[in-house]
Fold these 3 entries.
Entry 1:
Amino acid sequence: MTTFGTAKKASFTGSSASLGAEKLAQRPITNIGQALEGISAGVTTTSTSGQPGSSPDVRIRGFGSISSSNSPLYVVDGVPYSASIANLNNDDIQSITVLKDAASTALYGARAANGVVMVTTKKGTKGKNSINVKYTKGFNTRALPEYDRVGPADYYPLMWEANRNNLAYRATSPVAIATANATASAGLGAIVGTGYNVYNVPFASLVGLDGKLNPSASLIYNADDLNWEKAIMHQGVRDEVNANFSGNNGKSDYFLSVSYLNDKGYQIKSDYDRFTARLNMNSQMTDWFKVGANLNTTITSSNQSTADGGTSFVNPFFFTRGIAPIYPVYAYDPASPGSFLKLENGNLRYDYGNLSALGLSNRPQYGGRHVVAETLLNENFFNRNLFGGRGFAEITFLKDFKFTNNVGIDITNANTIVFGNPEIGDGAPAGRASNTFENITNYNLSQLLTYNHTFGKHTVDALVGHENYNLVSNSLDGSRSQQILDGNYELINFTTTTNLTSQKDLRRVEGFFSRLNYDYDSKYFVSFSARRDGSSKFYQDKRWGTFYSGSAAWRLDQEDFMKELTFIDNMKLRASYGQTGNDGGISNYAWQPLYALGWNNATEPGILQSSLGSKTLEWETNTAMDVALEFGLFKNRLTGTFEYFDRQSTNLIFAVPLPLSVGIGTETRNIGSMYNRGVEIQLGYDVIRKKDFNWHIDLNATKLKNEITKMPQESKEIIDGTKKLKEGSSLYDYWLREYMGVNSETGVAEYRAVSYVASNSRITANGDTVTNNIANAKYRYHGTSIPDLTGSVSTSLRYKGFTLSALMVYQLGGKIYDAAYAGLMGAGYHNAKHVDILKRWVNPGDVTDVPRMDAGRTADFDAASSRWLIDGSFMNIRSVTLAYQLPRSVLSRFKIDNAQVYVSGENFLMLSRRSGMNVQQNFGGTTSNVYSPAKSLVLGLSFSL
Amino acid sequence: MKNKIIASIALLLGLTTFSCENVYLDTNPTASIDANAAYSTTKNAAAAINGIYRSFIVRYLSSQGHSGHPAMMIILDHMGEDLVIGTTAASWHVGETRWTAHRSDVNTMAQFPYEMYYRIIGNANIGIANIDKSVGPQADKNTLKGEALALRAFGYFNLVQLYGKRYDATKKPNSQLGVPLVLEPTTTGLPRNTVEEVYAQINKDLSDAAALLSVNRVNKSHINLNVVKGLQARVALVQQDWANAAKYAAEARSGYAPMTAAMYVDGFQDITNSEWMWGFDHLEDQTEYFGGYHSYISCNYNSTVIRTYPKVINNLLYKQIAATDVRSKMWVETPTTANSIVPPGGVRPKFLNQKFRLPGTPSTSAMGDVPYMRAAEMYLIEAEAKARLNDAAGAAKVLKDLVVTRDPNYVQSVKTGTDLIDEILVQRRIELWGEGHRFFDLKRTNAALNRNGTNAIASVALLFDVAPGDVRWEFLIPRREIDANPAIVQNPL
């Protein structure tokens, strides 16, 4: 499968990788994006969130853009696909092909600058009618454990220390150590909450003057009472059933499928319920006219987890990770410590942390909030209906000519409801709801005229075409508060409107293109193409861009001089060069200076400056070249590709940060250049090749170098979070304060200083000037999140009816900025602590890199710095499948063609430098409180009649 | 023949679908309008000026606790000694209370006011540059330009007090660095002007605005002549220009009578209050939810802040309020369910705030209005200025005119000199609690921050003393500005 047509692998001049139905069928993947991980050298993905149905991010050959999109274009059945790929049923897919080089993707134009993922759905196959049925059942659990955190026995003394050290070491009026010790021991209860003593000795004597837990203290609650993770996570059940019916009589073919999936995440109230149906029919009606249609519908409803990576109280990962180990899920009975309060129905009462009316003390951390109760009582779900259609009519005339008219339409209607309950949390005390309707319609029309002629040893294949893409999105969003009756989340059941808005947006692209393929004697292949694209995002004088590409291949194995080398079965040298424009990721109206509506001042209409616009903004250009050697040796027992690629991005579009003092934050400009260069290696080897026993191993590796080569004159350096963009740096080079460890005399965190300031600096024995004030800390580069090497190893072992296949992905090098870990290493009060905090500085002379606990110095001690970087190497056993094919002899008795049972797992094992760290969360290498990946295990049964 | 027919059909199909014109690629948004239309007519210009007022009350840097100018009002009081966090459960505004947040150049607290006030200035600059070209009545243009000038002055007045060293009238010209004076639409960063230059511009803009504006306006959310004079009084007070402070303050409050004791109890959530000169009229569909002023400052909105660490008043200050003064009821020393209102499950620490109270118990909405300027402040400015001009009798009289409306038993002060000034300042602290004046008052009077002996909780506040002249009286210029503006320099660390 390739751009606007198909090509035999042997004659294909581009770079691609495919995955067929046989490899997809048995994997329990709800979103086909998950199948792209490890598919090929040069393709990297993030880990998919544990929320069922979510998509990973995909990058093909590095990072082509800074502000524009870096995501590949999905093309389904030949037409660009703008709806969510979560709508696609894994079992309908015949193949997934990743097109990596610009020459192959150039004809898709504007949206293909970052590569193309082509998805082809199944058709009826010639010869017979067939019925296939598949059923799987399995479950989801958490693939990565939580970070290792301290328990109550360490937590109380840590809080004691945070208080004591603040009193004893503060800059103004410090307190004598002995007094500070006494104050900290006496004041422990006031800090952690007077009702939150999980031990059998009173607070006043829980932590002694030496800062140690009273040795006679023993827990009066069991560990599960304090385990919030357990209360909100469970084993999610996954059920899937598929049936399809197909046939082909030579003139006409059909494929009809229906499927149902119910995939429950390992967090409560997170699931994905999907029904799909597809009908693909094609008919050669006369010898010159062919017509076909591929219609599908998907109906999805899903409860969405609120784990958005942020620090809101309703984020289960933020809450359960951060809550200190002394706060119980259920409310203690203040009258009888060690037991719990009950509701009238006999159930335990949740401790909201603000039950002062019942005599409980207020929880100082996350008081009045309770992620378990809020998750259960709130709602956050969507219902989404998709209708998709692909159709074509093909006319053959004058022997060598063909005219094809293609139409593709994807219509998504979605309704999202978010409800905040009136009892606890953001919706309290009256309840609130928001309700969003979206209607997204996109259509893609293309007309192709092709000419194909062979004379002698020459074959010419020419194409001219035109395409237009139109995206219309409508949304209506309303919120109301003050719920009237329980259990109804529709807005009519609320009294006060807090938001009501709607808008309609339009995006259009038009392109003209042509391509010429030529081959001589199936030995030499060349291809040229040109495409002219216009985008509605740019001003009329700048909106059209023209992009060229060319590629060539030479099949050495067809040459006479190679014939003698009999061990060579296949050898091809190929090269390609191509350009594509990129306009993704920026506003639909990027060129226009705008004032935004919606800034009303009470009842008076109001508008406010929102964008400067730019009439000179134009296409970002991606120019890619690659050279490769493909080979098959020893009867194709050893196959492989060595490939070099170089992607140059020029005219990079960037939201350039302006000085805040000019009153508007950014201006979108074409600012610079960047390259991605790399080497890809793919090898496949048949270790065993026998009739009943096969063993095959595939291995791939990619080494990527990304570098920014040009920045704009007016902003030579741009700091973006933990990164700084600058000529000579990569897109993902860390720019951080340099952590210099802990002063062994005082226990303060020290950073390399900008300059010596007597009040906060010192010169170390090594001659370094260090400071304990972050405002004086010096920033510098600290490596990159881009790994030294990425790749995958997959293997498949078949013995008689048994097949065992596995896929492992890996990364060597690259750094992770583990912000989620940093959140557990704070020097202050009220948060769970990572076990590494036990290495903190305690007494003068202690040599450690963890500063002292000190509630007054958190800004300096916990600051963003190189302290939070860690090696990003990891290994993930992404998928393992064991299948058994029932013997034909048995099946024939039941008139069954084929039957299989299998077990399959995703995210079997994830190993990295730190337990619990989600290395593949994003390409920038930072971690946060996201829904960590799921481990899925299913048992499947499939048969064909 | 057959081939020809097919070819014609193909051509026809091709032609029909190729006929896309260039307008196909001209698209326009529905949620925004062309910036060039913003000042094409005075009607549109009025919307653009209204947008600026709205930009006062929205969230900045996506931070709930930093929702615009009302958040600054709360934070600047937290940085003083009078607005106290009531329990150790505090999470919002702790770094501000400890004076660490504004001293880290990457902290929201260094960036958010800088970004907000410059956004107000940037939008006002567009208005000032374009309003004369718009189509519409000259009277409307005058009003809109006057508002834009006053808004710009308001922005700079806040910025220079936050980021510049204190103005000292004995050391003219004040050559210490203020903030860059950006006076027309641009994308280029400028260097910092001196504090003297910034004040000169503020005074010029305010007097230009005064010449263009009248006391009439559509809504109290707009700046009119009274508000301009109120701002002139504030500026003069900070510049120790006592004569002008007294003059403008007296003129500014004309037409705005102090509340009666009865009105006072409900006096801090409704813009229609007779004493409010300028404020924001909050409607339900313009909510910032938990980010709004009353989500932090009220006593009965159901937010985590108010439930678990409500605001209390400095106990030493509270003790100076007479029992007969209605304001003694605006905080409750020993709160109980009978004498105070809190949200469900809310705590009741001592000296609990009841000053800002929304309708309803508990309030289901955070939609209280926001008081930017009240006539009471003008009485206090006039009294203080007169006292500093050694007009003790005049000062005491103005003070009495205000305080007697709160406390019928109040007797006109017979104090003079520093004693009288101190009495006026105590009244000022009581009257303007929670309205954003304390940090600026300490700074302009060159006073120390002193929380010793108050009910500030040691483990929350951490900081008890800051001497006058300490570098921490200046906010740091945000890192974001330093990165994008090569002309800028940082304040002393």
Entry 2:
Amino acid sequence: MHAFHGRRIHRTFLVFASVAGFTLAMAAETTVPPPGIRENTPAVFALTGVRLVAAPGQVAEKATLVVRDGVITAAGPNVAVPKDARVFDMTGKTVYAGLIDAYTEPPKEAPGQGGGMGMRGDGQGPGTPAPKGGANYWSADIVPQTRADRTYVPDDDLNKKLRGQGITARLLAPAKGIIKGTSVLVTTGEGDGTASIVKDRVALHGKITTSRGFGDGEGYPGSPMGAYSLFRQSFYDADWYRQAWDAYQKDKTLPRPERNDALEALQGYAGGAAPVVIDAGDELYDLRADRIGREFSLNVIIRGSGNEYRRLNEIAATGRPIIVPLNMPDVPKVKTPEEAMAVSLETMMHWDIAPENAGRLDKAGVRIAFTSEGLKDRGEFLGAVRKAVERGLNPDAALKALTVTPATLFGVADRFGTLDVGKAANFIVTDGDLFNKKTKILETWVLGDRFQTDMPPAADVRGTWELKFSESQGANDTVTLSLKGEPAKLSGSITRNRKESKFSSVGLNDTRLGFAFKGDSLTWPGVVRMSATLSGDALLGAGNWADGGAFSWTGKRTAPFAPEPDTAKVTPPEMASFPVNYPLGGFGVAAIPPQPDAVFFQNATVWTSGPQGKLDKASVLVQKGKIAAVGRDLAVPAGAVIVDATGKHLTPGVIDEHSHIATDGGVNESGQTISAEVRIGDFIDPNDITIYRQLAGGVTMAHVLHGSANTIGGQNQIIKLRWGVAPEELKLAGAPEDIKFALGENVKQSNWGDRYNTRYPQTRMGAEQIVRDEFKAGLDYKARWAQWRKDKKGIPPRRDLELDAIVEILDGTRLVHCHAYRQDEMLALMRTFEDFGIRLVTFEHVLEGYKIGLEMAKHGVGGSTFSDWWAYKMEVCDAIPYNGALMHSSGVLVSFNSDSGEMARRLNWEADKAVKYGAVPEEDALKFVTINPAKQLHVDSRVGSIEVGKDADLALWSGPPLSSLSHCEQTWIDGRKYFDRQDDVTRRAENEKMRAALIQKVLKSGDAGDMGGGDKKPKWPREDVFDETFRLSVEGR
Amino acid sequence: MKTMWTKWTAWTTWILWLSIVIVVTALPESVIASTQIPAKPQDHPIALVGGTIHPVSGADIPNSTIVFDKGKIVALGASVSIPADAEKIDVTGKHVYPGMIDANTAIGLTEIGAVRATNDRSETGPINPNAKAQVAVNPESELIPVARSNGITMVLTDPSGGVISGTSALLCLDGWTWEEMTFKAPVGMHVNWPSMVPRTAWWMQDSEEKQLENRDKALNDIRNAFADARSYMTAKQAEATPGVQYHSFDSRWEAMIPVLEGKLPIIVNADQIQQIQAAVAFAEKEKVKLIICGGYDAPLCADLLKKNNVPVIVDGIHRDPMRNDDPYDAPFTVPDRLRQAGVAYCISGGGEAANVRNLPYHVATAVTYGLPEDEGIKAITLYPAQILGAADRVGSLETGKDATIIVTTGNPLEIPTQVTMEFIQGKKIDLSDKQKMLNEKYKEKYRQMGVGK
């Protein structure tokens, strides 16, 4: 049994590639018994006289296309028509390769159906039990074994709609989970999967986020951070799985590794053998998809959001192809001044620029394909592509994105994408340029089957007709009939003795014409009804007078229909009004500020927070982003940018030791009591306006922490507030690794509501134990690895990202910042750490730190506290504003933090409270928000004080920096001026101008809608558009 | 010798404190109890001599004297005659201000935010005009001495639940009972105006449509409450006419009568311009007095507010801009923009309970970003007194007004400034508080461990 199983897996590895590449050939033979008389209509066709667009930019006039049994056997201008072919004269028509819809999902299930939970977009909430049956991964969100081909059922209505858009094949992907399974490429013709499934397991599909839903805090992952980590862990698990089975194959006396369908299905993707499509709900996720792709050398295709233009250069630099959605932003709701106030400049600019997304991506060299997913109606597909062309996408590039690119990405370029001999007969016939608004797709051929998508009328009745009546009433009159308009939408009139009456209704049904008109002006009383049968240029008709009397008539066409010349003025499309700024919208910048070779701050009161103390009338020289000199008698170097700081005060940039800004990963992964594997750094969000607002408060650095929902939370990230940069550039390069712990009421869920009373721990006793238990597990894990590295015997240990982080803590290479309030819990954790021979770096909040100042000093842990918050919950009733001063005088390294995007803007004033409560000297109080937090973060060799060699992160104040009556005037990071109060005033005016211009543009666009069009609601802070589409689709039902 | 003395006082202070804790913990339902003993009524004249007096209603008077007796100011100026029996207190080098007033707090109604048992601010149901804040004020709240020790002498404590929350009370922060503490009640009928436009935030579970539905329901609640109260008033007034039937008592509508008669203002919580416009239109239609509390967008409809004589309690300066595109200092400049537009305003601390003490620092930020400093002081003394209908008795230092006075080491807007003395209606206030006691207690711990002074 064991042996058999092992072989099976082994074989799977070997044959994987060939199975994935398996395609079903068009077979003359069939396994289906004939239901009756056999049908053997020949399937040989020749389309002659066509304009053949064999591939983008490759056009042949007056060409012939020959199709035999679903395959193109000849194509070109000098092709002989086979004798056995049925010939279609297509003179004047254009033939293109069939279009490919590069991403579709099965129809969404409404909540409560099919196991969906509440509002969760993937219908699969955290904590959802794993699928029944089979050998599954422990998390139901990891289901790579799901195969879209296995459940594929053709949908005739959908296929008809897609063919109407020229789509001959589409990728169908599973929609549920984080690693969701594999997709199938299907054609849009008729027939079941035996014909229409082109290729199975085309790509693996995944996302690195999770939907926000009810029941937060239950089940893992409960945040995008957790989803990213789970994605990452499952690829490590897949690698381990292979190694474990290899080891077992060599030595059957070893314990058999677990069997796991998911991990088997995950084989082969790391390394890039087959593509992995990763959803990117906004431009930041494009970059994240690329990052995780690099981590495992995945062949990533990004399923984009339409926001890519916002980080075009960075996204283009990833080299990843992007499947671009075609749904465009709603029209902003700006009809009244108050409504407009609720719409941000970002939303307006998005409305203005988003239609150019595809064109800009193409120009930037990104390979793109299009998806109909996200459109309210897939029948809008071609129209949306045409809009993209109108807004700057090169038509050849558009065609490529619809044909060659997806065919190549999905590994079917040998059969799809162009009209070469040997390829599948998937093509479309149009009456003109595909990207012209008026062009119709006349026929869509799928695997040699012809579908007339725009069926021409059986006959054309338009023109001028002379009528003859049988009855005396009109027998000798001159009666003419005029019929015009579109064949499917006729209009016309009847004229008798130069008096005309327009038809109130007219229509052609096959060859039967019918119309009615008011006859009074023609001296025929009442409404007259007439009908006729069309035969060439003759009409054979009958009719009824108003009184019911019947008559018959005949008509003869005297002139054919001549369409009126198109006099409509072609107005060139209006392109986006403003260039992209960074981040998009209000206060965004065109580029990051320059770094002058030298900056000279002259005649300031310099608070160094360093050994030089406070210097009056001093200068600071900055060279290439670093502090080069500090002192009273410095010479001004030639060419230096001079900042006259007379009467002003210069300090190191403020450092917020405890912040939750600039992250969109959910802050808390509360799904497990220990989530040491999750990383704030995976979700740095440079678009957060709070960054700019904090710059205006002199803040230059923030420690972005995981939340306090669980005992061992996640890994934190230190950022510099470089407003306008890409996410990775916000991070402090080379910053020490650290992690968040938490104790007390939050981790024991006592403030979460009555439902939350089962997750361990529910007491401070339990919190103490869970840490010890985890540390022990970390030691065991470390020992297992050490043993394995030494002798390489047995089943290799599994790499566990959670325990990796714990081992780093135990090794002292990952610093621990612990949220805590009460002295008892802090003392207990210090003792735990001491028992493992390690030390905490900082207690966060630490509101009872003053009760154990000496104990903390002895342990060596710092305290990062609020100046004066208290009484908001039970464990902070004893908080006092003297806390900072008392800890400080006990020898504890003290900082003041904000834990608030708003309060961080005035940490200098918070520091002044240490002067008020406890008489801390002013210079020491300033250190609470400069060098002390830098020391607590272990970055004090680089920032935190004005010392030669350190980063030029500086704040210039209008007066003494601690004073509640001083404000920040300039903020510099790396010798670049990121904030200037004067420039800010200019920017406000610019914003207002841009808003006014865009509001006018919206109003002039003529379709300023009633609903929607406001700022989008992110499900996670700043995330998740897929979820939003789902919400709208469900509520629409 | 001095060290000995300090040690002794520290010991006695905390032994006293400890004993009270022991007594109190025997009564589980009142764990929270402040140890400061309310002052006895002023029984002799007091003269504060030699300080700089900031009357607020007039120019500063350096090197001057203020005399008060039986709780009222009897004289102030550079040369005043001090009664022979007066207690003279030298305040040379110090500054004398009227006590600060926070026009929007939860003091006495909320003790510990996260502990439901200690919250008495939000009654259930949307319509509670008959709820009265003062009757639930806990005089033993530990938050009171903390607010007081930074110079906040009076607060408006208001209910906050539902749509019509109830009436507020202006409290003096000293007294044995809520009755003693209550300076004026009711002060206003508090109304939560619904958000007129849907909010977009990651925490918002309701869809736009649902939010609009909720808004319409809340607006209907307000309109119906006023209509029903008015019918009730009409019916009750008609009872005086012979033959008209008696109508049963309805405590909700009974409480609304002073509002409908124009005697009691409605204090409407509103930040968005649409809310403010709607509230003004509503008050105009109902012919009731209106005060806006919140007021973030008030400068954008200043003309409307000025024309209708609607004052604004600017509730909190330390807050985020409401909209992405707003200037970073938009919340900081609200008071000055209102001042420039000629709208009556005062500044409150954001509906705080625990940190009411930070009221002057909200003002400091407004001053830093443009508000003249003397206006800033008025915004937390005279102006709230005016808006809350108490300026005849408090809000400035003037003869005949309450002797509610603070003595400081400097400008109260500057954080390191200390309040060294405080009088509420002439009563000398104990400026200690739980936090100061804990500070002393743990200094003693370190002394025992051989460190510290």
Entry 3:
Amino acid sequence: MNPTLLQLKNVGKRFGDHVVLSEINLEIAKGEVVCVIGPSGSGKSTLLRCINFIAPPEEGEVIFEGRSWKRFHSALNFIANRKYEAQLPKLRAEIGMVFQHFNVFPHMSAIENVMLGLTKVRGKNRNEAREIAERSLRQVGLGDKLDQYPEKLSGGQKQRVAIARALALNPKVMLFDEVTSALDPELVTGILDEMRRLASDGMTMVVVTHEMNFAFQVATRIVFMDAGRIVTIGTPDEIRNTTEPRARAFLSSILG
Amino acid sequence: MDGYQYNWDVVWQSLPELRQGLIITLQVSIVGMALAVVFGLLCAIGRLSQYGYLRKISIVIIDFSRSIPLFVLLFWVYYGLSLKFSINLTAFQAGAIALGITGGAYMAEVFRGGINAVDFGQREAALAIGLTQAKAFNLVVFPQAIRIIIPQAVNVYVGLLKGATIVSVIGVADMIYVAQYVSLNSFTPFEMYSAVGVAFIALTVSIAGLAYLLEMRLNRGRSRG
């Protein structure tokens, strides 16, 4: 077993009074592909957002490469919280994220989208950044669209820009949040193939998805969530043969 | 019954003074708008802050500034500050500040609307690549918001431009002041104020035209996506 890269310890998240996540414990080794499945509203996307603190968890901690990240509850810890917030960009720069709705920056061309993090986060000069960005975009098959603005790109191409934008920063783990859900059906396969390629290159990945075939083929482990909790975790085979009633019900409703 | 005898010659004769007044009107409204942009942006940032107390303070300031008639505000800034705090402003300064406060309240809402109109996912994506909150705002959110903000900011400016006609009451020598002054001797208020009206129509139409060109430029080859 590879060493642990990422660990969620007792993570909990609330939006006001509404508990979205509770008692999430998950350990992810380097090189693993963990697929998170479950009914909508079960907290899958929020779980991803807790990992890079785009939606900071109120409870528990995230341990990334041995360093613990958590916020302090008491208002007296205002200064400590500010310090911790100032550190968050460092954590996020090591974690790539791809979204359901692409979220490419519409006011920038494809290559500018990819260069932004390189110049403003990694501090590379424009030439260096352009070179890396170009390589990244070529890898996802967009070598001929470098200077296109997003509005001229299809959904699949936008999602490739988003993947290139994340990969260009050389992240240690990639988070995928239902990245094929907003795509036209004929474009889904291309994006999934891109993810398979990444997985076989050894990238550590956490993938929230409704694509069961992908999950069962590519995942090293599958996490089944319901109502803000992890119900069961196992290898694809273990999940396929699970006796846990909620997971069974969910799988049979999807797989038929 | 004799018809009213129009005397447009007076207008032509007072063109140099009217032109002077126009320049003052433009100056006071532009300085006022600059103040409004700064004041409005600060209020909008406060309004959108994650800290509850900043949000509340901003709401109070915005509502307060928006509720006072410009006329009253003008007197408070010009005479009030002088009487209460011995802060003596020139009429021009007081006029610009009053316009800045009124316009700022509207600009705050314009900024907030523009910023809120940018999809939340844009901010998430900007943070996810490791940008700080400030950089995410400056490089990703604001450049998209500005396209929504500009047309509305032009509306605010046109409002301020017309509002600027009130500064004559504290003695700023703007176009209205000139028209009033000339009319006192020639008894031709209708002609003089009409001339001012025409000047305003011309100004407003040109500003709208410029804003349209600017908008086209900002949108060239790009749109939301």
